[in-house]
Design a protein that fits this description.
By secondary structure, this protein is mainly α. About 45% of the residues lie in helices and about 5% in strands. A two-stranded antiparallel sheet has the order 1-2.
């Protein structure tokens, strides 16, 4: 058997990830994830690693250093890699990297939502979900989440539209079902508004992420993790450092 078959540690390629962010970027991101999983450098709640382009080229010898550098810069630009300077001295411009796992997870979040598209009513000006309809979808023990006779779908969607300058319709059945599901789990209208506030502050200024300020993402399966997220804090990225002429390290 050829020595070229499985005598070396293989590199992984996730096809679905490669389709979304590029094959070179997918390989590099997976390799960085591999090393992050065993990293002992934990800063501000994240694991970080660093390595020179030359060292990464040894792990991926089928590429030149410039190709690896382009893939890393692409991942930074897309926001999947976060750079920082955690060196002991300010004169040391070594760049550290971690993965923005939340942003990576958003890539396939739309696929995790159930398909519930239906014909929409002709008018949505006063759309509401009545208590009887809600109780058919959730257990009796959780139907007490509202003492009112109507579920404020309109209030939630109008708040989202005001914050994001969007025009989502409360009459959309998929939107109704997603909101109904979260209400059925015991979440409140104020919880919805908090998630809208915190993710708007984080994603609205970001040209790669603002498109995810939509009901199926905000109110989907990661709703509780968004609700428990601390207020967004800016993390240093590549543009905070002028290192074009320096040897890049991660």
């Amino acid at each position: 058997m050829s020595k070229c078959l499985m005598n070396e540690a293989p590199l992984m390629i996730i096809p679905s990830l490669a389709v979304k962010i590029g094959i070179n970027e997918a390989i590099v991101l997976q390799q960085i994830h591999f090393w992050l999983s065993s990293s002992k450098h934990v800063i501000e709640g994240r694991k970080w690693i660093y390595n020179t382009y030359k060292d990464w080229q040894k792990q991926m010898p089928f590429w030149s250093e410039s190709t690896i550098k382009r893939a890393i810069h692409s991942l930074e630009k897309q926001g999947y890699l976060i750079s920082g300077n955690w060196n002991k001295t300010k004169m040391d411009n070594t760049k550290w990297y971690t993965i923005d796992y939340e942003r990576v997870e958003v890539l396939d979040e739309h696929a995790s939502e159930p398909s519930m598209d239906q014909d929409e009513p002709s008018s949505d000006s006063d759309w509401i979900v009545d208590e009887t309809s809600l109780n058919q979808a959730i257990p009796e023990s959780t139907s007490k989440i509202t003492s009112e006779k109507k579920i404020p779908v309109v209030e939630i969607i109008q708040y989202l539209n005001e914050k994001t300058k969007a025009s989502y319709k409360p009459s959309n059945h998929k939107t109704q079902n997603i909101i109904r599901a979260r209400l059925g789990e015991g979440f409140t209208v104020n919880d919805f508004k908090y998630v809208i506030d915190i993710k708007t502050a984080e994603w609205l200024p970001d040209p790669h992420m603002y498109k995810y300020l939509r009901p199926e993402t905000l109110f989907g399966t990661k709703f509780e993790s968004y609700l428990n997220q601390k207020p967004f804090k800016k993390i240093l990225r590549e543009e905070d450092f002028n290192l074009e002429d320096e040897e890049g390290v991660i």
